[in-house]
Design brief:
Blueprint: E1 8-9, H1 20-38, H2 50-66, H3 68-91, H4 99-106, E2 110-115, E3 121-122, H5 125-133, H6 144-150, H7 155-177, H8 184-202, E4 214-221, H9 222-228, H10 251-265, H11 293-311, H12 321-367, H13 372-389, H14 403-429, E5 434-435
Parallel strand pairs: 2-4
Antiparallel strand pairs: 1-5, 2-3
Helix pairs in contact: 1-2, 1-7, 1-8, 2-3, 3-4, 3-8, 3-11, 8-11, 8-14, 11-12, 12-14
Length: 451
């Protein structure tokens, strides 16, 4: 907002007006409140308690702080899944099924005790519908009011968040209208508010901070259920014995699990608490579920606004010209990452991924005809590429990422992490030298009508 010739000042104490600490505290408080109150984790397993629930919420909040557009992607997928569930249940004659019921089911709110398994099996909405339609379990009787009663979201914290964000946005608009400078940290905070508003909308009907599910009793055995569905091998599954019901590979989810898998290998369980048992005893918090075009566009609008907001600092004052240049590069790449990366993922999901899966069988058959003299070398190279492309716990073959996705996305993600890190670091570092007008307070009396 100001050029490098602007009169500047360093750290400014608070007593005479707006100080540096006031700016820093207001921004950090707003970001933390938005991230913490907007997230809605899935239920922990029956053997876990409040600490696991807190950890899941903390992991989602970390995603919101470091990459809020990814948190939006998770929420959009869950909202899309819930809408599909409502449509399917209503078409099946279950008129009382609402978005709240769909979210409750997808977050692991229903678990099934079934003969043949030591632990209760967490269900999602698709699996519940499949089981109910075939008579394996009875349709659960759970009203919307009962789901709301189980919801333990902190209403006071959300009220404080709404008040803080409204005040923050109003203050920022007023500063711009009066020609007063704002900091890059404040601009970054506004970008968080924008994208986390979209996240909160997607999770509007999802219960929060729920600890215990509803237990359903199955009137059959797990082996009978699988045999009647045509799956005779009792160990032929990846997550749970029922994952054949709605197994649909989604490229974004595969990519996310790949990089989270790298963190697991490095003993850094960041963003997602690993599930170490098989079958899974809870529904994963960070699955990217299949989305539909309207919600893709919805997310695109918020991600575009999120990226463009940081670019509004294009002509802001920076302590050095190098910092300004780096900011411009980082903010521009954030926008490119959201637009180009999103389009590339959508292209793979709609067109290229099906072609990739179709090539798997012919490639396998062709490899069986390689001569004995070269097969050892080729198998070694093939095994190396196979391991690099698949880091899932149980080496699920269907989770093998195509190189056409892995190579460019890895490069894009590295540049994105560098860009985001620079923006967040520069937000703090640039506080050492700011335009003097940053510390001027808004004259609210200008907006009060005078007689």
């Amino acid at each position: 907002m100001a050029e490098n010739s602007t009169l500047t000042t360093g750290w400014k104490p608070s007593p005479d007006g707006r100080g540096t600490f006031d700016i820093l505290a207001s921004c950090l408080l707003t970001i933390i409140l938005c991230c913490w109150t907007s997230v809605c984790p899935n239920l922990p397993s029956l053997t876990e308690g409040s600490w696991a629930q807190f950890r899941d919420k903390f992991d989602l909040a970390c995603i919101g702080m470091l990459g809020p557009e990814f948190l939006l992607g998770i929420a959009v997928g869950q909202r899309t899944s819930a809408r599909r569930s409502v449509k399917k249940f209503k078409e099946g004659g279950y008129k009382g099924w609402s978005l709240s019921h769909a979210f409750w089911a997808d977050m692991g709110g229903f678990v099934m005790e079934v003969e043949g398994l030591e632990r209760a099996l967490p269900l999602n909405a698709e699996q519940l519908f499949w089981l109910v339609e075939r008579g394996y379990v009875e349709m659960p009787v759970l009203s919307t009011d009962e789901i709301r009663d189980k919801n333990k979201s902190d209403g006071l914290a959300r009220l404080l968040t709404i008040g803080q964000t409204l005040w923050f946005i109003a203050n920022s608009i007023a500063r711009v209208s009066q020609g007063l400078s704002i900091t890059t940290l404040e601009l970054t905070t506004i970008s968080f508010i924008i994208v986390l508003f979209g996240t909160s909308y997607c999770w509007l009907y999802k219960p929060s901070d729920v600890l215990r599910p509803v237990i359903l009793r199955c009137n059959s055995t797990i082996s009978i259920i699988r045999n009647e569905a045509g799956y005779h091998d009792p160990e032929d599954y990846t997550t749970t014995p029922l994952d054949f019901i709605n197994r649909e590979d989604y490229v974004m989810d595969m990519i996310w699990k790949y990089y989270v898998g790298i963190l697991y290998k490095m003993r850094i369980p960041l963003f997602s608490r690993p599930i170490k048992v098989r079958p899974y005893d809870r529904n994963c918090n960070t699955d990217f579920l299949k989305t539909e075009l309207d919600f893709e566009l919805f997310a695109g609008v918020f991600i575009f606004a999120f990226s463009v907001t940081t670019m509004c600092a294009w002509n802001f004052y920076f302590p050095t010209s190098v910092e300004r240049l780096l900011w411009r590069c980082a903010s521009a790449f954030t926008l490119v990452f959201g637009v180009v990366g999103g389009a590339y993922m959508w292209l793979w999901h709609l067109v290229l991924f099906d072609k990739h899966k179709a090539k798997q069988l012919p490639t396998s058959e062709a490899s069986s005809m390689v001569s004995d003299q070269t097969i050892g070398t080729q198998n070694g190279v093939k095994n190396l590429f196979t391991k690099v492309r698949n880091l899932t716990n149980y080496e699920d073959p269907s989770s093998r990422l195509p190189l056409g996705v892995l190579a460019p996305v890895t490069g894009f993600c590295i540049l994105y992490c560098v860009s985001r890190a620079y923006i967040l670091i520069e937000d703090i570092v640039s506080l050492r030298s700011l335009p003097a007008s940053v510390y001027a307070t808004v004259e609210w009396s200008q907006y009060i009508p005078h007689i």
